[in-house]
Amino acid sequence: MGQESSGRPDPQILAVVTLNKERVLGGNQLTLLAQNNEEQKTMTLDLAKAMKSEVMQMKSGDYLVMRV
After folding, report:
1. Is 53 helix (H, G, I), strand (E, B) or coil?
2. How many CB atoms lie within 10 A of CB 15?
3. Residues 3-60: pLDDT tens digits?
4. Contact predicate 7/1, CB 8 Å
5. Residue 39's closest CA among 15, 65, 63, 66?
6. Which terminal Cβ of the chain has fewer Cβ within 10 Å, N or C?
7. What's the pTM?
């Protein structure tokens, strides 16, 4: 990843947790398919805690686990 002029690394998407199997695509990030909303939230929070990262929920309902 590149760096901004401030010397900080660019934000990095570490994982995507979705309920829609059509959105499971390739890429560098881990992509997980959850069975329901509760499992999706639990998986996302567990991953974020383990990776010491931030969570963002997209308008589509998918969650991104990001290092900022």
Report:
1. coil
2. 20
3. 556 777 888 999 999 999 998 888 889 999 999 999 999 999 999 999 999 999 999 9
4. no
5. 63
6. N
7. 0.82
Q: Encoding tokens for residue 68?
A: 């900022």
C-alpha closest to that of 33 among 49, 15, 50: 15
pLDDT per residue as tens digits for the range 13-24: 999 999 999 988
| C-alpha–C-alpha distance, residues 53 and 37, integer Å | 20
* Residue pointed to by tokens 């890429």: 27
* Residue 35 burial (10 A CB sphere; 0-12, 13-18, 19+): exposed
Beta bridge partners of 15: 30, 65
CA distance 49 to 56: 13
Q: Which amino acid is at 55?
A: V
